[in-house]
Amino acid sequence: MTGKVCGICEGPLPSKADSRGRTAVYCSAACRQRAYRSRREPAPDVQALIAEVGRVANRLTPRPPEAFLADLTSLNSDVGKLRRIARLAQRTKDENVTPAPVTETVDEVAFAGSLEEHQRELRVHCYRMVGSYDDAEDLVQETFLRAWRGREGFEGRSSFRAWLYRIATNTCLDFLRRNKRVPRPYDPMPGVDQLGEPPQFLPWLQPFPDDVAEIAETRETMELVFLTAIQHLPPKQRAVVILNDALGWKAAETADLLETTVASVTSALQRARPTLRERLPERRADWARTVRPTEEEQAILRRYMAAATADGDSRVMAELLREDVLVTMPPNPLWFSGRDVFLKFVAKSLDPASPMYFGEWKHLPAVANGLPAAGGYVRRPGTRVYRAQVLDVLRIEDGKVAEITAFEPHLFPAFGLPLTIT
């Protein structure tokens, strides 16, 4: 061994007798690649992030509420970036068992910053794979941890993004192997004369916040109807469809990521697409390139929120709903198929004279999965505060509400919605 050390990990360099050509500067190809990345990918400006957090925090004021919410959202984003960078940098120190550091501080921060740049699109990818926002958050963190622990194995043969997608996809596949999730029809509801057959029950299904509009290629591949359909595919077929049809990867790229052949990828697509066609509405056979609710959809949402109160006009609500409207409430087993069936249920909960009266309602607009949504707040009898109760996501076709998916309120903060209003 020579007396010189590697310029990256400070480990011993191979002796001259063991190498050919010029004297080695790095001990391995991994260290050589890390040195290259450190030159090409500068570390994120952590000090600038800290300064921005201080600037926004110093101007915080609860009035007006719109600006207050915008500042809180900005703070949450920047503090989250700093927290993740610090945690990732700390992990390498916790896992280092040798006196000499494995990486220099700038490399630790640069690598953590590179992971942070891909966090949002990886969250979307994991969400498409598993259909749950909470699980997607956990899977992204698991992806980052696996990437951090395996960073020595990245030698640049593929892009850093493709390398992360490989880790994220395998993390999701491992999760789906551990958690067998099979859609099944809803159970019949005694005493309720439903219109049509029971829909599919996916208790794990959750909505995704509006920031998907900035990074998703199409709205349709994030809509709940697509998420429901794709959950019927085996995990490997699901991954192939997402990579090819949602992300637009070539079959060869997908095959490389999944460590399989192009023929296998093509075969998986051929088996998966008929299943999707059976479960998707006809108008989504060719996915349109829209990512935000249209003006018409926003107008329908406003009328829906006004009608969904005790003072609302039931005739307006009836006009908004399609005759065969479908209402589901995952993870609850309640479901209603048909406008008259649903309005009969709603009328009892809105009537102060009814023993099933639930309370007074207010709503705030939101966007979930690229669709119009209403955050519902209820003031229970004898209380003064309206508390978050439900997030209604509307699927609108031909000017009518064709489907309402009502979710529990614990994800309100992810949508920028408060948990209470007055």
From TrEMBL:
RNA polymerase sigma-70 region domain segment(s): 116-181
Domain RNA polymerase sigma factor 70 region 4 type as annotated: residue spans: 226-273
The keyword DNA-binding is assigned to this record: yes
Biological process, per Gene Ontology: DNA-templated transcription initiation; response to stress
UniProt entry keywords in alphabetical sequence: DNA-binding, Sigma factor, Transcription, Transcription regulation
Residue span(s) of domain SnoaL-like: 302-404
Record has DNA-binding as a keyword: yes
Similarity remark: Belongs to the sigma-70 factor family. ECF subfamily.
PANTHER family: ECF RNA POLYMERASE SIGMA FACTOR SIGG, RNA POLYMERASE ECF-TYPE SIGMA FACTO
Complex and partners: Interacts transiently with the RNA polymerase catalytic core formed by RpoA, RpoB, RpoC and RpoZ (2 alpha, 1 beta, 1 beta' and 1 omega subunit) to form the RNA polymerase holoenzyme that can initiate transcription.
Name of the protein: RNA polymerase sigma factor
Organism the protein comes from: Amycolatopsis japonica
